[in-house]
Amino acid sequence: MLLTIDVSNSTIKAGVFDGDQLVAFWQIATERRKAVDDYAMLFLNLFRSSNIKPKAITGVSISCVVPQLRSVFRQLCIRYLKVTPFLVGPDAKIAIRVDLDYPSEVGGDRITNASATYALYGGPAIAIAFGTATVFDCISEDGTYLGGAIAPGMIGALESLTERAAQLFKVELIRPPLAIAKNSMHAIQSGMIFGYTGLVERLVQRLKAELATSSSKPVQVVATGGLADVIAPETDEITVVDHQLTLKGLRLVYDLNKD
């Protein structure tokens, strides 16, 4: 079995694949101060809850954008699973070509999302990851990763708004009845949900126009991340929501690099 781990700034997603089937999936909060043993106990409990024996894990593929946690998860795998993990980086073999000014700057999550999007949905395509940042990655029809755009994430923007404005407060990100709100809660929800929908739509339209210069095929727009479920119902620009896109990408990249 293959354990895949995607460590982002705010959450850690992990999944176990048996062949190409995802048989277990977990999501926990990222805690930078946790030690190797802390995370190990947590993962061993997750394995136990899903009836997965640690010795059944024969490979591990990791994407980690939190530098101080890379060694933590590497040591976790070596000590507790007896497996040396594969950490996705700029030197990883992938099934798409990279056309960027500085490939080493790109995080492993973006590489895996682009790889998975092209492998599963073809090109041209745009992958949108709704996380700490809202990240747009573009792949051409012939499988070239072209780059993309990064906007502030919805949660960070909401926290900044409520922390800096004394009379505003945190709200749940659910759709308000109308865009013209009659109270503060609905006003914040309107600005966040309809405002971010507008950001996504306009940026996707611009990215599509640039992709159209090299292809006449329709562009597939694949969204991932928990907040994809908030924005996707509000727009026709998103083709599909795939919450396990990054984990699927980690499996694909692992298969290309395991030899």
TrEMBL record:
Record InterPro entries: ATPase_NBD, Type_III_PanK
One function term, GO molecular function aspect: ATP binding
Residues noted as binding ATP in the record, renumbered to the chain: D6, V7, S8, N9, S10, T11, I12, K13, T132
Protein name, as recorded: Type III pantothenate kinase
GO cellular component: a single term: cytoplasm
Domain of life: Bacteria
Keywords recorded for this protein, A-Z: ATP-binding, Coenzyme A biosynthesis, Cytoplasm, Kinase, Nucleotide-binding, Potassium, Transferase
Catalytic activity, as annotated: (R)-pantothenate + ATP = (R)-4'-phosphopantothenate + ADP + H(+)
Pathway: Cofactor biosynthesis; coenzyme A biosynthesis; CoA from (R)-pantothenate: step 1/5
Cofactor note: A monovalent cation. Ammonium or potassium.
Quaternary data: Homodimer.
Protein function: Catalyzes the phosphorylation of pantothenate (Pan), the first step in CoA biosynthesis.
Localization per record: Cytoplasm
Protein residues bound to substrate: G107, G108, D109, R110, S184
Family: Belongs to the type III pantothenate kinase family.
EC numbers for this chain: 2.7.1.33
Enzyme category, top tier: transferase
Pfam families: Pan_kinase (PF03309)
An individual GO BP term: coenzyme A biosynthetic process
NADP in keyword set: no
Catalytic residue positions: D109 (proton acceptor)
Record bears the keyword Disulfide bond: no
Needed co-factor(s): K(+); NH4(+)
Naturally occurring in which organism (per UniProt): Desulfosarcina ovata subsp. ovata
Gene: coaX_1
Residue ranges crossing the lipid bilayer per the database entry: none
